[in-house]
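It would be a great kindness if you could assist me with a short task in structural biology. The matter concerns a single protein, recorded as an amino acid sequence and a row of backbone structure tokens. The record follows directly beneath this note:
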Amino acid sequence: MVEGEARELVGAVERELRSLESAVTLAHWEASTTGTPEALEKATVAERQIRLYLSSRPRYERIVALLESGRVQDRQLHRQLELLALDHRSNLLTEEVIDDLVRRSNEIQAEFYNFRARIGEREVTNNEIRGILRAERDEERRRTAWEASKQIAPRVADRLLELVARRNEAARSLGFRDYYAMQLELAEIDEDELLGVFGELKQRTDREFAQAKAEIDEQVAPRYGLPVEELRPWHYEDPFFQEAPLAQELGLEAHFRGRDLAAIADAFYAGIGLPLTDVLARSDLYERPGKDQHAYCTNIDREGDVRILCNLRDDDRWMGILLHELGHAAYEKYIPVSLPWILRQPAHIATTEAIAMFMDRLALDTDWLESAVGIKLENRAPLQRRARQALRFEMLLTARWVLVMTYFEKALYADPSRDDLGRYWWDLVEELQLLKRPEGRAAPDWSAKIHLTAAPVYYHNYLLGELIASQLGSAIQAELLDGGSHAGLAGRSELGAFLQERVFAPGASVHWQHLLEQATGSRLTPEPFLHEFLPIPA
């Protein structure tokens, strides 16, 4: 009787959510690929409609009552109820509040989509700014480009602070400490456990990161004829210092000039038994005015319409990003359609990030570059050693950068009215990334990060993803590669079979920690990541 009632309820909700979610994902796709006011308004309306549907308190209370009855024994049905309860909980708000939150967020996102920085009288894209920071040797031009990357910040900072305050008000009306705590709980993440793991990672990587950063600085400083203590953020390649510097000195970029990155990635994924040709055909891969300058993957309908957005250039950085986004796409595409629609999604944001990051790392693996890309590398042994050092530093840097974002965002939601947010941002950057702040800078540089608007309380998933990627990688090495290199991955359909069976097949039918246990034999642990990246490469 109770299970019959549960099935009827889940079926009715699923029928509504199918069309509503497809409308949202399609509208956001159009908005991010065109940036037109009409598309942005359509995205606002679609998101508002799905959130209003999920705001039904009577339906939520009915779902909770079914869960608490203890009489829904079917595991898949029970899990669907759990996920629906989580989806409803954050939306139990008035129509006016939902409309306000959605509109504010989308208006700021629209600013990011359409804004192009200026250097002098010339508009420049994010790709052009990164190109300057990769190649330019003139310090003043580098500083100008770095400052241009932050020009969006003062345009959105005040509106973002108001949005944060409104998000907090909504979360507190639902019984949460603040929006940050709500987002973690509804994502099935224990806040104390998360911060405990991150604190341990910080403590155990402090010495190694400081040593690696000092070695990098000893290489960077002579480029500009400066002592190390005078290095500032514009002397590195990434505007947020979130990617490993000196990547171009590996010489990998030249090997991708004139190459079709989509064809390379297509062949690799087909070779591991996860063909994605249809995904690439539906995707939007190259930059143009009005288009979102970032990269992401979206599943339009959970029926097979998976797409990615990129702004490809023929270099090694975009090769890694393309592998990353197609990792997300492979996960989404190969979740079995036999699963109920509500369960036809990744077990967690962090598990899909893990697959993307596992693939992303291959772009710095010389064995993979030779076997999958067909690059003939000269002086292979020293290049392999330097590439491993670069990957190690990138992983250590990723951990520190995610800590900056995690700690800052937690503080932001704890008190968005504090008047020292800009100073606190640079305090974290100096402490965790060991990057010196520009003297006298008072701009709200933190608000130049689009995630604070478009993907709030999300950034910790990148570090969780790296930890899970290492955990999966350890299992893959043990079972498929006998401890060998990733050269063995190209053309190995066993890899695709492993991922489909161990990671993709369950969809969201199990809690992400249980998925990890089933796939690797252990719940989340930082040990494989630390084992992989703390030792200095030989």
User: Anything to note?
Assistant: The chain has a mean pLDDT of 94. The beta strands are 117-119, 122-124, 296-299, 306-309.
